[in-house]
Amino acid sequence: MRIVHIITRMILGGAQENTLLTCRGLHGNSDYGVTLVTGPALGPEGELLSEAERLGLNVLIVPQMRRAIHPLRDFASVRALRHILREIRPQIVHTHSSKAGILGRYAAHAEHVPVTVHTIHGLPFHPYEKGWRNRLYVWLERKAARWSDALVCVADAMADQAAAAGVADRAKFTTIYSGMETDAFLECDRHRRAMRSRLGFRDDEFVVGKVARLFELKGYEYVIEAAKRVRETHPNVRFLFVGDGILRGALEAQAQRLGVRDAITFAGLVPSSQVPACLSAMDALVHASLREGLARVLPQALLAGKPVVSFDVDGAREVVRPGDTGYLVPPQSVEGLAASLCQIIEYPEQAAALAARGRELCRERFRWQTMVARLDELYRRLLADRG
Q1: ∠349-351-352 over CA atoms, to 5°?
Q2: Which residue, of 125, 198, 338, 361, is most buried by count of CB atoms within 10 Å of its CB?
Q3: Phi-psi domain of 60 (left: phi exceeds 0; alpha: psi -120 through 50; beta: other)
Q4: What is the pTM of this model?
Q5: Cα–Cα dist 47/11, whole Å
Q6: What are the residues whose beta carbons fall under 8 Å from the beta carbon of 319, sequence distance 6 or more?
């Protein structure tokens, strides 16, 4: 089976890691011939293109395909995608991310590709977007859903929200959790001593970590405010921010104003292969994004045995179950973040028990091999339905 995966850009990110592991798994199956099509990986977020090439994947770049809406570039991207599909003549096209999802599904429809699948890693419409953009995105997603044989979501919450917005009937959606290298996180504490030493953390310091790009809606500003409150009663607490982006200067300035700059380590951009080691240095993880399909760092932290605090957004509660596997607080609640972190610090045995249950929940559910096997089943069923 010839299959083409299309994604807007291969930066360091959850959707991109998901796509890379999917292509890796299918590439190792002799039944599939896999091609990965993507736009250029521009900006400060890092890239996964070199890893795709290292794995021996057939990678094609569409230079015009970018994340931002740009009619001329988008038209040129569709032409390029149609040309690629005409050359490869795949049985399946699988698109990822909003821009590639719209352009790729239109190209697949225009070229009469037998089966088209789209994965929703995060919805483009959300409460923090401008009204006219939300209306446009919903209209585009409804249109593209008609060109899709199946819509895959990384969390049930995504499927529920998309169906509620009228994108497609709920029956058209299926949830396949985003896979990862689970063993790397299950075994990551072997790096703990070396990583804490490298980052300058003492043994008696409690380290709260956050892993995300330094961009809007990632919620770092709330964590910095919470850091001030937590350190008023627990001065031995340090914070580790893993990621880079355009807001770094503003966040460093905010931390300076609040008097917590010296308590925060900005680790910058790290390769995805180094995330397990970074998690090993932490004693707890905080996730404060305002929108996220299901942040991969939540199961990653639980697999690493770290207590987790998260804003209650999108698919977070499918992993972070209050009173069972972690702490959920209302979005934008600095008070909730601070109180939950203090709870973890003051009641370590309770926090460890929550993390242990979270580890067992995630151990099988988030294996990348499980994800690929479920996608393989979906592809075969859809092709069989096509006759």
Answers
A1: 65
A2: 338
A3: beta
A4: 0.93
A5: 4
A6: 294, 298, 299, 302, 325, 326, 358, 361, 362
Count CB neighbours of 136 within 10 A.
15
Cβ atoms within 10 Å of 259's Cβ, excluding its own: 11
> Which H or E run includes 385?
helix 368-386
- Read off the pLDDT of residues 117-153 as tens digits, 9 standing for 90 and up: 999 999 999 999 999 999 999 999 999 999 999 999 9
% of the chain at pLDDT higher than 90: 95
Query: Is residue 33 classed as helix, strand or coil in its secondary structure?
Result: strand
End-to-end CA distance of the chain: 14
Share of the chain above pLDDT 70, in %: 100
Q: Beta strand 2-9 with 206-211: parallel, antiparallel or unpaired? A: unpaired
- Supply 69's token pair: 């809406």
Please tell me the distance from the alpha carbon of residue 268 to that of residue 283, in angstroms, as a whole number: 19
* SS3 of residue 198 by DSSP: helix
pLDDT in tens, 26-84: 999 999 999 999 999 887 778 999 999 999 999 999 999 998 889 999 999 999 999 99
When pLDDT is cut at 50, 70 and 90, the band that residue 337 belongs to is very high
CA dist list (Å): 24 to 51, 120, 270: 10, 19, 21
Return the residue matching tokens 């698919």.
315
Angle at which helices 334-346 and 348-365 cross, to 10°: 110
CA distances from 355 to 96, 223, 255, 327 (A): 31, 20, 29, 10
Contact 150, 378 (CB under 8 A): yes
Tokens matching residue 264: 């925060």
For residues 102 and 137, is the Cβ–Cβ distance under 8 A? no
Query: 141: helix, coil or strand?
Result: helix
3-state per-residue secondary structure call for 300-320: HHHHCCCCEEEECCHHHHHCC
User: Any idea how long the chain is?
Assistant: 387
Domains and CATH numbers, the chain: 2-179+367-386 (3.40.50.2000), 182-365 (3.40.50.2000)
Q: What is the largest CA-CA distance in the chain?
A: 66
Contact 63, 32 (CB under 8 A): no
As a whole number of angstroms, the distance between CA 202 and CA 340 comes to 23
